Amino acid sequence: MSDLFSYYYFRPRSDTKPEDAAIAIAEEETTGTWTDLKTRKDYVKALDGSVEELHAEGDGYVAKIRYPAEIFEPGNIPQYLSVFAGNLFGLGRLDAVRLLDIDIPEKLACFEGPLFGMKGVRRLIGTDKSGRPHVGTIIKPKVGLTPKDTAEVAYNAAVGGVDFIKDDETLTDQAFCPMDERIEAVMGKIDRAQGETGRKILYAVNISDRADRIVERAERALEHGANTLMVDVITCGYSALQALSEEMKINVPVHVHRTMHGAMTRMPEHGIAMRPLARLVRLSGGDQLHTGTISGKMGHSPEELKRDNEILKEDYFGLKPVFPVASGGLHPGKVHAEISGLGCDIVLQAGGGIHGHPDGTESGARAMRQAVDAYMEGLTAQEYAKDHTELRKALEKWGVR
Ligand SMILES: O=C(O)[C@H](O)COP(=O)(O)O
Ligand SMILES: [Mg+2]
């Protein structure tokens, strides 16, 4: 396969035939526009897009569109997106259109991809043999704590048993919690927790910033001792993530949050499905990526989610698999449903579900780990809670019978 293929669901405007709507996408994103052109040369034909397949589906249609590989500038993700996720969404002849997936040819998959990937992160934490799900938390309240209090929360979560701690997606380098000071305070506590527990614990500092500043911010974070970086990829842009993995030799994992994705991924008839966005994160070097939950607080399709997680792990141009992250509205009583639905290759993250525990963060972290241990031992959370107080109190608080 040498060209790039994109799959779209669409509903044509009432006065537009589906085949004309599909052709409109192919033309708009390659060499055409709304009318014929006096400036067109014969040789331009080599870059014409085409409709390869079209069939009715649900209330609309699904089209497979071919984009000649030569239209793309190898390695330039913003330009890729301008083609297969560009003007088409605004075409008047479409009442709705959703990019479902992309098939990229080898020559356009010219990226290093993740440095660690799921297996590398597992080796860091020491779960490459057990294969158990990782447990993570998000410092809460999401903003407002001082560096010292942030570090206290991180310490309690770490000794309670989490493998991974992250900043929330809106915390970066604000005056109330300067990044450098926060990193030093948190890493000091994590070093202490690692000494006490004998476990490796990752703290992902959110370095989201302007694409041309993010490398410098990452270097600053590493200088202050960060052992994991976090990027909000939709708000920063794939260029920011690419810059990290291609411009600097970082030797720490990159955790990718997808805040703002819901504006594109949520509606089943219009926008961009998570799958193409996830493929681009893998190409751009994300080691871990939020993809959604089976039972959490965000709207989603469990079937789409399961498939999205699979494509992060399946063979893809020899790139390392990405660790999927389930986060948003989880607590120990939801762990069983998440692992049953998504498997053990998952990072289960809880913010409120840990820091809202009746006995506080450390007990909340213990309760999450107990819920995972229960699953790994083939027991329900309720059975395991009979002799694990932290889990029992979590189930009681969140009404899990
Ligand atoms: O960034 C995240 O993943 C969310 O803030 C999760 O927070 P919650 O577990 O409290 O929903
Ligand atoms: Mg958050």
Automatic annotation (TrEMBL):
Alphabetically ordered keywords of this record: Lyase, Magnesium, Metal-binding
PROSITE patterns for the chain: RUBISCO_LARGE
Record flagged with keyword S-adenosyl-L-methionine: no
GO BP: carbon fixation
Needed co-factor(s): Mg(2+)
Domain annotation Ribulose bisphosphate carboxylase large subunit C-terminal: ranges: 128-398
Superkingdom to which the source organism belongs: Archaea
UniProt xrefs under Pfam families: RuBisCO_large, RuBisCO_large_N
A single GO molecular function term of this UniProt record: ribulose-bisphosphate carboxylase activity
Protein's UniProt keywords contain Lyase: yes
Ranges of residues in domain Ribulose bisphosphate carboxylase large subunit ferrodoxin-like N-terminal: 2-107
Gene3D superfamilies (alphabetical): Ribulose bisphosphate carboxylase, large subunit, C-terminal domain, RuBisCO large subunit, N-terminal domain
Enzyme Commission (EC) number: 4.1.1.39
This protein's name: Ribulose 1,5-bisphosphate carboxylase large subunit
Organism: Methanoplanus limicola DSM 2279
High-level lineage: Archaea, Methanobacteriati, Methanobacteriota, Stenosarchaea group, Methanomicrobia
